[in-house]
Amino acid sequence: MSLQVVSAVSNSSLLQPGFSLLNFDGHVFFFGQKGWPKRSCPTGVFLLDIKQNELKMKPAAFSKDSCYLPPLRYPALCTFRGNADSDEYQYIIHGGKTPNNDLSDKIYIMSLVSKNSKKTTFQCVEKDLGGDVPEARYGHTINVVHSRGKSMSVIFGGRSYTPLAQRTTEKWNSVVDCLPSVFLVDFEFGCCTSYILPELQDGLAFHVSVARNDTIYILGGHSLQNNTRSPSLYKLKVDLPLGSPAVTCTVLPGGISVSSAIVTQTGNTEFVLVGGYQADNQKRLVCNTIVLEDNKIEIVERASPDWTPDIKHCRMWFGCDMGKGSVLLGIPGDNKQLISDANYFYILRCKGAEENKEEDLTAQICSQTSTEDAGDSTPFEDSEEFCFSTEAHSFDVDDTDTYNEDDEDDESETGYWITCSASCNIDINTWVPFYSTELNKPAMILCSSGTGHWVHAQCMDLSESMLLHLSEANVKYFCNEHVELNKGLQTPKKVLHLKKQPMKPLRKKTTMKLTMPTKKSFLRRLFE
């Protein structure tokens, strides 16, 4: 096993944890960026171009009949073939997080339409599902099983937000483990069926799943409810007869207590397990070989690479399978770098050059190789992996349309990890949630001084009740450095004087003189 450094050129801000990769015909495509797509690449899908250990990105396009694909982070994805022997395949993408931290319950199918040296075009179709549709989630896995000439997808695990009926102000954005149900998805008819198996008692997230034919092996994972990493090894067997499908689960010995691990295929029946965490804030530096036979699985320890001091001493790491027995690993960069969110990357090759040949893709792997949410093994909920595929020499494209983030608007001033004030102590490598509404980013509030600037609510010593009030009320806020200045610039409120209406002139009073008749005149009128 060998370790090689990879440099990201002029686009390192896009290479953040949570990305996903699609491998079509030996070319790797990246999607799921942290923010919303920009004008340079409205689809949010890029071709990864690796030359001379340097990585560049080239925008890809969608066909006119494609649907909109949001930049989902931490989704479950796998390849889908009509049958186990088919050479053509598509990618299934389910769940994940949007840039607004909303969770998706949609399922998309990505196909390669055309590709040349100048342009790559995809077709993306949203699949309508009925029946027991899985709830919105992330950190889960999806695999495809083949049985009796039919194929189905299997979704398991993950995390979701607390249901609305159970939310409180203090724990509004809290996440919970999804129920340990197994979902079968039939893409031919668009229907879903859920199964509750007695062997699966606790929900799992960030586990590893390896599928072969009609069997799926589930390894590791983290449970929020118990705050444990399961040492169990589960074997799911799916039978697809003419009638209703049958799903059985068997608990096997020999599992590994690990979360956020990465699996890469090195042979027809051989895989390598690398990375992940074995305890809170404790990386797992041991590697294992997984061998799948027809009805059994064997896991043995193998020699680990010579990890660099940077990898050994960093608190977190992330990565993904590159295909052909290689893994991309990433660690946080030095805070002294000009780009605060830059990362260092390494390629780990798990087999020798003589073994580097085309793999038999009848076996599938799916792993949520990401660290847990805030409050779990590390305080970095964003440390979930993105993937690369193929070798460096497999790219043969020019650089004319290479994405250059320098062409985009500078958004560093509105980033979450800025130094908001002289007393700012927010550090991306040490930050942990302070307010109950925080999930993976610090809460920020806009100071109305001048043209306005963003500050961290925690640095301003705002209580949670005050923060909620300011977010709901239509009032201006001034940070600690500008509140006194604002008071000095304030002018007294303008007092509106009542306008006096002119009085109307009084009319001249007229008097009427009334005379009473005398008694003599009255009697005369009476007898006339």
Automatic annotation (TrEMBL):
GO terms assigned for molecular function: sequence-specific DNA binding; zinc ion binding
Subcellular location: Nucleus
Gene Ontology CC terms, in alphabetical order: DNA recombinase complex; nucleus
CDD domains the record matches: PHD_RAG2
SUPFAM superfamilies, A to Z: FYVE/PHD zinc finger, Galactose oxidase, central domain
GO BP annotations listed: chromatin organization; V(D)J recombination
Entry keywords, A to Z: Chromatin regulator, DNA recombination, Metal-binding, Nucleus, Zinc, Zinc-finger
InterPro entries for the chain: Gal_Oxase/kelch_b-propeller, Kelch-typ_b-propeller, RAG2, RAG2_PHD, Znf_FYVE_PHD
Positions bound to Zn(2+): C420, C424, C447, H453, H456, C459, C479, H482
Similarity comment: family membership: Belongs to the RAG2 family.
Protein name: V(D)J recombination-activating protein 2
Organism of provenance: Pluvianellus socialis (Magellanic plover)
